[in-house]
Design goal:
Keywords: ATP-binding, Ligase, Magnesium, Metal-binding, Nucleotide-binding. With about 450 residues, the chain is an alpha+beta fold. The strands form three sheets. Strands 7, 8, 9, 10, 11, 12, 13, 15, 16 and 17 form a ten-stranded mixed sheet that branches. Strands 1, 2, 3, 4, 5 and 6 form a six-stranded mixed sheet that branches. Strands 14-18 form a two-stranded antiparallel ribbon.
């Protein structure tokens, strides 16, 4: 760590960095930033930077307001969009109390805690997200809703299209920040894009997702368009998910891989999936944290609505992707409910905790779903034992309230704050009179 600190201090001097942004997130997953001058960095490393945590959503209660932000030197990167005028760098921070204890409501600490539990069992948790988002002509919208930048579709090549230049610039910027991109393409909706980040340990991935959202927003502004990670910005077009591929490694060996087993999936892999399935309804208020998230989950277009798993079955909640011959390291499972607006630190904590619970308790994996689950009738789904994911944020809150797993993983303060925040959002939503109601009822009733 000392070597890393020395490297940061030397780079700041050599590259003429003028500002260093210290980044962290609130409980909802909004990125927070405070800029310090180069002269302050060494002090921030040694003592942290003090601020009033009660001003940040869910970070502390007012009677314990003082917290310290400690920059993590391993996350130091120069921000490419700042250019050569006043070069600026960033570091992610861990938040502590004045006596040096990790702040219980710091989302990054919640994930670190859960990863430590996995490490105690000999596991490292790797994740690989496929992040979808929409490019719009502007954040303003009229009677017909937002206006996408194009009318292209899945994998379309659009000569001279905004999305090409946008993705090229974004990918280059991400690579400059040390974030490897696996591939990028146009998604199914008009103006919808997907960029897949290469797999990394879950803490690095969560940091990368926060950086990714910032890069995408910055490049959009630069190109005169607007990027949104809203789960379902247009009712008639697909929502934006963040399908995440997951694997557990024991040292260099993929714990999900067993040659000769069905789908080359080990007992640990099967128990991990069983844990995800059993606890999916409880964790959905975090993996899908907004009222709008449920418009995506229940809006069709390949979003999962029912709790089941399948091999290469895109209608299932958990998918076991096609096995690559002789590539045991690539064995993984894909969780398809999570959307691009989730707080990645909390969502990955709960997905990991659910999988570990399946392993610890030896959960049995139910039979796989071989049919298109959407095309089955409710009676057929019931007969096959496929329960549904929560149908609304209110429904998800009810599951979460009863969950020991979620309470234990998030810790009391974060658990209570998420419930408080989400109940308020549901109340605000429920009290509205919508254009739909006026259109249907005003003249007729």
């Amino acid at each position: 760590m000392d070597k890393q600190r020395d490297f940061v201090l030397r780079t700041i001097e050599e590259r003429g960095i003028k500002f260093i942004r210290l980044w962290f997130t609130d409980v909802v997953g909004t990125l927070k930033s405070v800029a310090i001058a180069p002269a302050e960095v060494e002090g921030a490393f040694n003592e942290g930077l003090g601020f009033d945590g009660s001003a940040i959503e869910g970070l502390t209660r007012s009677f314990e307001a003082d917290v310290l932000a400690h920059p993590d030197p391993t996350t130091f990167q120069i921000l490419p969009w700042r250019g050569e005028v006043d070069p600026t760098a960033r570091m992610f921070c861990d938040i502590t109390t004045p006596d040096g204890q990790p702040a219980v409501a710091d989302p990054r600490n919640v994930l670190k805690r859960t990863l430590a539990k996995a490490a105690d069992r000999g596991f490292t948790f790797y994740t690989h997200p496929e992040v979808e988002f929409y490019l719009l002509k502007s954040s303003k919208y009229g009677k017909n809703g937002p206006t996408p930048v194009d009318s292209a579709g899945y994998f379309d090549n659009v000569p001279g299209g905004t999305a090409h230049d946008f993705r090229r610039r974004s990918v280059r910027m991400l690579e400059d920040l040390g974030i490897s991109v696996e591939f990028s393409h146009h998604e199914a909706g008009p103006g919808q894009n997907e960029i897949d980040l290469r797999y990394a340990d879950a803490l690095t991935t969560a940091d990368n997702i926060m950086t990714f959202r910032t890069v995408v927003k910055e490049v959009a502004i630069e190109q005169g368009v607007y990027a949104t990670f809203m789960p379902k910005p247009m009712s008639e077009h697909p929502g934006s998910g963040m399908h995440t591929h997951m694997s557990l490694f024991e040292g260099d060996a993929n714990a999900f891989y067993e040659p000769g087993a069905k789908y080359q999936l080990s007992k640990i892999g099967r128990q991990f999936i069983a844990g995800l399935l059993k606890h999916a309804p409880e964790i959905t208020a975090v993996t899908n944290q907004f009222v709008n998230s449920y418009k995506r989950l229940w809006g069709g277009d390949e979003a999962p609505s029912f709790v089941c798993w399948g091999h290469n079955n895109r209608s299932a909640l958990v998918r076991v992707p096609l096995y690559k011959p002789n590539k045991g390291q690539s064995a993984r499972v894909e969780y398809r409910a999570i959307d691009s607006a989730a707080n990645p630190y909390l969502a990955y904590s709960l997905m990991l905790a659910a999988g570990l619970k399946g392993i610890d308790e030896g959960y049995e994996l139910p039979p796989e779903a071989e049919d298109n689950v959407w095309s089955l009738s409710d009676t057929e789904r019931r007969a096959l034992g496929y329960t549904q994911l929560p149908a609304s944020l209110d429904h998800a809150i009810q599951f979460m309230e009863e969950s020991e797993l979620v309470a234990e993983t998030l810790g009391e303060q974060v658990f209570n704050y998420v419930l408080l925040n989400k109940r308020q959002e549901w109340r605000d939503y429920r009290s509205q009179v919508t254009p739909f109601e006026l259109e249907k009822n005003l003249e007729m009733l």
